[in-house]
Specification:
Blueprint (H helix, E strand, L loop, with lengths): L3 E4 L2 E4 L4 H4 L2 H5 L2 E9 L2 E2 L2 H15 L8 H14 L6 E9 L12 E9 L12 E11 L13 H9 L5 E7 L4 E4 L3 E6 L2 E5 L9 H13 L3 E5 L3 H6 L2 E6 L3 E8 L2 E2 L3 H19 L2
Parallel strand pairs: 7-8, 7-14, 11-12
Antiparallel strand pairs: 1-2, 3-4, 3-5, 5-6, 8-9, 10-11, 10-13, 13-14, 14-15
Helix pairs in contact: 6-8
Length: about 280
């Protein structure tokens, strides 16, 4: 007799759901993923994404072909070609442990799923209207070995997203010391007295690729001093400018927090420099 499951009030054959039933990412969140921007038809900052992915796989002790950089790069190009993306796009590259076992896995081998979508624009564009900032305080994010990586177990970020569902808001998560950590899908930067501040890795933030590019490359172009540190709610009140970053959208500026209002001068400059840097980066590779 074949195995049955109860799905949405109906008895069904388990074979219909074998992909989910055998998927450890679905059952245990046992995996990682990268979201990669396609710029001029090519994967942007692919070396940085590969480095973060392999670091995360090492922490999880998952052995996957993605450890080979050429395999990873070829896979990106293959999915871009298959989707016929000639300009802007986005890729989600998911890797998880193969099926078997319960909490303790039977294998450390990895499997992957790579998907790509067209974006309506090729270049990074700054949002016309700034976001208002809210802070989600009901659940805090702990700092662990897994904090720097993107993983499918994202209930905290989902709950934070439900905190302010109205358009025009960006919700910030806090860590267990009640300091600012990150946005729902972004890192946060604040500008004060021409110094750029962002939460340090020990503040439980994801080590975002766009965050890294700004710290290591773009800040120097704009003669900006950057400090990775603790950022409090009071720092939001005293900031001159606040913006959020991720690999897909680039820079998104914030209009205000509570009664405080911000400028977007630096956000505009960084977006312009980012587009020039992205063009040069892809041309040289």
């Amino acid at each position: 007799m074949s195995q049955k499951v109860f799905y949405n009030g109906q008895i069904e054959d388990a074979k219909k759901f074998s992909y989910l039933l055998n998927n450890r990412a679905f059952r245990y969140g046992d995996g990682l993923f990268e979201t990669i921007r396609v710029y001029n038809g090519r994967p942007l900052f692919k070396e940085l994404h590969h480095k973060r992915l392999t670091a995360g796989l090492s922490v999880l002790k998952i052995k996957a072909p993605e450890a080979d950089a050429l395999y990873f790069f070829d896979t990106l190009q293959n999915i871009i070609a298959a989707q016929n993306i000639k300009s802007g796009g986005r890729i989600r590259y998911s890797v998880w442990r193969t099926s078997g076992g319960y909490y303790t896995p039977n294998s450390d081998c990895g499997v992957s799923l790579v998907e790509a979508q067209h974006l309506p624009q090729n270049a990074f564009e700054l949002n016309e209207k700034g976001f208002l900032i809210s802070i989600y305080k009901e659940i805090t994010k702990p700092c662990t070995l897994l904090s720097p990586f993107k993983n499918p177990y994202a209930q905290l970020h989902v709950m934070a997203g439900m905190h302010k569902r109205e358009p025009g808001w960006e919700t910030v998560l806090i860590n267990q010391q009640n300091n600012l950590c990150e946005g729902i899908s972004s890192n946060i930067f604040i500008l004060k007295d021409n110094i750029l501040l962002t939460p340090a890795p020990d503040q439980a933030c994801v080590k975002g690729i766009m965050r890294q590019v700004i710290i290591e490359n773009l800040a120097a172009v704009l003669n900006l001093k950057t400090i990775e540190t603790q950022i409090s709610e009071l720092d939001l009140q005293n900031a001159d400018e606040v913006f959020f970053t991720n690999a897909i959208q680039g820079v998104r500026w914030a209009l205000g927090f509570e009664k405080k209002r911000y400028y977007n001068t630096l956000s505009r400059k960084i977006t312009g420099v980012l587009n020039e840097f992205a063009k040069d980066y892809n041309t040289s590779r």
